[in-house]
């Protein structure tokens, strides 16, 4: 990936307070880390600028999460191993040795996931209407 990557081009400003039907201008790039099983390095993220509201907009690739270095796949795999398959921290870390995580790192992601279950449920219900999810009063695990 580089500057020639076909970044998405918005047709209007996505800022809910603006929503002007004029495409934002290409503004610049910034670099961020991305870590996965097959890649560890810096990637370029395209930034756009809206002249009407003055906001900058960045579109992350689908494999990235805001504020996380590890890709969606890496985090999802780790959470599945420890929450769904009932692996111990030690055996889960052996399966994920390519990430080089310490037990505290994995515990961080598990805690963060469990503390955000309500937000995750709202997101899943919006993405997939009619999704049946466990009741809220059930044990988080």
Query: Could you give the order of the helices and strands?
Result: EEEHHHH
Q: What separation lies between the terminal Cα atoms?
A: 38 Å
Structural class: alpha+beta
Look at the structure and give the mean pLDDT: 81
Shape: flat
The tally of helices reads 4
Q: What amount of the residues lies in strands?
A: 15-25%
Radius of gyration of CA atoms, rounded to a whole number:
19 Å
Main sheet summary:
3 strands, antiparallel
Task: List low-confidence stretches.
Answer: none
Helix content: 25-40%
Q: Give the number of DSSP strands.
A: 3
Across the major sheet, the strand order is: 1-2-3
Folded structure, characterized:
The chain is of the alpha+beta class. 31% of the residues lie in helices and 17% in strands. The protein is built from four helices and three strands; from the N terminus they run βββαααα. It has helices at 72-84, 89-95, 103-115, 117-127; strands at residues 25-35, 40-49, 56-58. A three-stranded antiparallel β-sheet has the order 1-2-3, with no helix packed on it. Strand 1 (25-35) and strand 2 form a beta hairpin. The termini are far apart. The mean pLDDT is 81.
